[in-house]
Specification:
3 helices, 3-stranded antiparallel sheet, alpha+beta, globular, about 10% strand
């Protein structure tokens, strides 16, 4: 039986961001730092779905979560001013 992952198309950084629950900028930063395996196809980065799933499983096993919920009343982030 053929491996179904082998025939999956590779993902764009936007698709990876949706899959991980993070922003496009965060994914791009991970790729530029070499933390997330990716390759360039012209001017576009692509990520193998198999490599992405393996990377995500390793990160989850190490205690990583794709997003952090803020505590009630906690402020921060882009465009917000901390008081």
């Amino acid at each position: 039986m053929p491996d179904p992952i082998k025939h999956e198309p590779d993902a764009s950084l936007r698709a990876v961001a949706l899959f991980l629950g993070v922003s496009y900028v965060s994914v791009h930063r991970l790729v530029k730092r070499g933390e997330l395996p990716a390759y360039r196809l012209g001017r576009v980065f692509r990520v193998s779905m198999r490599a992405l799933r393996d990377w995500r499983e390793r990160r989850i096993a190490a205690g990583w979560t794709p997003y952090r919920k803020r505590a009630p009343g906690e402020r921060g982030g882009r465009g917000e001013h901390n008081q």
